[in-house]
Amino acid sequence: MEEIVKLLDKNLECVRYEVRSDRIVIWIKSSKKGAVCPCCGMPSTRVHSIYERTLQDLPIQGKKVTIVLICRKMFCDNENCSKKRFAETFEFVNPRGKMTKRLEEEIVKISMNMSSIQASRLIRENIADIGKSSICNLLKKIVMLFDKRDVRKVS
Ligand SMILES: [Zn+2]
Fold first, then answer.
1. What is the pLDDT of residue 60?
2. Distance of CA 49 to the CA centre of its chain
């Protein structure tokens, strides 16, 4: 499991995992000593609090995967920084994301070639517990990115 977790980010550590009848739950945390303030860029090792985020990830061996990401809220000790506290961020998931980026990519790939109803059925049966509206939002976001790219090409 440690190796699978490291595929997401080499600075991650698997705390524990449970194989349940319908899914695998993996508790993950950063193995880095501290985190860098996204506002001023100063590293900090002073922990304010710890909280958990629940994410969905790609299935393993046909089982859906839930990640419990153990996140730290850190103090920023830079006097000139407007943030006193910040939450640690991870490359593999957006700050408020509910699924890993690699799962998002997979869902987009599946949804490109079928109707949203078919796609949501297939995804919910085999990949992850994600509603049709979340899939639609994801596709809208991608379409918007493409649109912006097209505009840039024209100008
Ligand atoms: Zn800061």
1. 92
2. 20
Q: How far is the CA of 70 from the centre of ligand 1 (A)?
A: 21
User: Which tokens go with 76?
Assistant: 């920023």
Task: Report how far ligand 1's centroid is from the alpha carbon of 78 (Å).
Answer: 6
The total number of residues shown for the chain amounts to: 155
Task: Return phi, psi of residue 96, to 5°.
Answer: -110, 15
Tokens of 152: 């840039």
- Give the residue with greater pLDDT, 148 vs 91: 91
The tally of CA atoms less than 13 A away on the side-chain side of residue 85 is 8
* Pure H helices in 26-131: 101-112, 116-126
Whole-number Å distance, alpha carbon 33 to ligand 1 midpoint, is 17
pTM of the predicted protein model:
0.84
Which residues have CB under 8 Å from 20's CB, separation 6+?
63
At 64-75, the pLDDT tens digits run: 999 999 999 999
